[in-house]
């Protein structure tokens, strides 16, 4: 936790931290005292330095000091086949920490249909918060759920691809993922076990470019930082 | 699991898979049948295609077909402050999957001493196996435990650094991590909460170069794929 991220609220001089997770972190890991300075963010608004002015059992009160710069996003829409619930948390946290602007969780042939009923999907805003707190960011990315592969690719991704290129990570191709691209783009990552040939063909027909990441097959959650770090340098 | 990795053993024409985890994966995820082809590796030896010739309840027998190429390693020694036990598994798996040649788990001021007693440390060979199976690799990296920071940095890392450069990932510096370096090197990553100033000074005095990874603070386990993907393109 590199900032304490509070829910969206009206502008004021003093703020109160009440989230038990944040209180526990401040007490146990940082052992905070009155007068200590903290980095604080208000979600989707701003980030500032703050000073602790009162500590109670379930509340820590802070006063606002100087405004701080919010780290820039990377101009990427990350499109990922919905992973197993256990992987979802890490995937969202990492993508948010790395500064992804928009995330699409999409269906694909090898995505188990039961994943769409997972209670973890209701936890997405919490995972986003954790990712923002790690990065010192406050702006939540947009997250879109696309439960049908074909209409998503044909009706929406195809249009986006006319604006900015779409790079698909896939082991079975001759061309290697570009690096230092540093321009707006979409990145597509398949499910565990990969896309089926029909899906790769449909992506290609709709303008997507298929690239490999070397001769080692990576897990989805490892492929994301690898691709983003390679494209945005 | 992109290959079935078997323990080191004498060269033969037929092999038997007995590990319950591997058997379960082959049955449940791949639904294998007699005559199916598999990718198989013998740890620290070789990799080949194989055909299933017999399926019993607790055993799957295969016959060896043609030899396959083992994916190349990246020429890096990854030096990481020992993370929380929960993070250790993922960190080792990812590093092995990405092809790291040698891993040093080292002590640092912000590493809780109790981590060195964790039973997870005895599981390292298992995590290595999982990482190799993901990558389709068979060569286990060397793993070294360094329980004292200063003697390690002064007596060993300093010597390595005379041969190949050592890049330390650290948020508080002006210089940005190089990219497309593609040469042998050491990479150092600190603990949760970062290195303390004394440690950064000691690393510098011993020839290490300190670089940031942008203005977002990453978790150890995210920083590893980000740095490796940036240095080795």
TrEMBL record, chains A, B:
It comes from the Bacteria. The keyword Disulfide bond does not apply. It comes from Acinetobacter qingfengensis. The keyword Transferase applies. Specifically methylates the N3 position of the uracil ring of uridine 1498 (m3U1498) in 16S rRNA. Acts on the fully assembled 30S ribosomal subunit. InterPro entries: Alpha/beta_knot_MTases, RsmE, RsmE_MTase_dom, tRNA_m1G_MTases_N. It is an enzyme of class 2 (transferase). Keywords: Cytoplasm, Methyltransferase, rRNA processing, S-adenosyl-L-methionine, Transferase. This is Ribosomal RNA small subunit methyltransferase E. Residues 73-231 form the Ribosomal RNA small subunit methyltransferase E methyltransferase domain. Its EC number is 2.1.1.193. PANTHER family: 16S RRNA (URACIL(1498)-N(3))-METHYLTRANSFERASE, RIBOSOMAL RNA SMALL SUBUNIT METHYLTRANSFERASE E. Belongs to the RNA methyltransferase RsmE family. One of its GO terms (molecular function) is rRNA (uridine-N3-)-methyltransferase activity. GO terms for cellular component: cytoplasm. One of its GO terms (biological process) is rRNA base methylation. It catalyses: uridine(1498) in 16S rRNA + S-adenosyl-L-methionine = N(3)-methyluridine(1498) in 16S rRNA + S-adenosyl-L-homocysteine + H(+). It is found in: Cytoplasm.
């Amino acid at each position: 936790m590199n900032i304490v991220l509070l829910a969206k609220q009206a502008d004021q001089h003093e703020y109160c931290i009440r989230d038990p997770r944040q209180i526990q972190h401040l007490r146990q890991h940082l052992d905070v005292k009155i007068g200590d300075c903290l980095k604080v963010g208000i979600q989707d608004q701003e980030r500032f330095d703050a000073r602790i002015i009162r500590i109670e059992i379930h509340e820590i009160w802070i006063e606002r000091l100087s405004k701080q710069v919010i780290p820039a996003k990377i101009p990427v829409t990350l499109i990922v086949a919905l992973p197993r619930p256990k992987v979802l948390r890490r995937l969202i946290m990492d993508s948010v920490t790395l500064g992804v602007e928009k995330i699409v969780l999409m269906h694909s042939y090898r995505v188990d249909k039961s994943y769409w009923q997972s209670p973890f999907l209701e936890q997405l805003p919490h995972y986003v918060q954790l990712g923002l707190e790690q990065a010192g960011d406050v702006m939540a990315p947009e997250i879109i759920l696309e439960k049908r592969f074909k209409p998503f690719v044909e009706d929406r991704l195809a249009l986006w691809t006319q604006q900015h290129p779409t790079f698909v990570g896939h082991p079975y191709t001759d061309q290697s993922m570009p690096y230092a691209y540093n321009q707006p783009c979409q990145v597509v990552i398949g499910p565990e076990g990969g896309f089926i040939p029909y899906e790769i063909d449909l992506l290609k027909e709709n303008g997507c470019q298929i690239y490999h990441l070397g001769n080692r097959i990576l897990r989805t959650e490892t492929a994301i930082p690898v691709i983003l770090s390679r494209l945005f340098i």
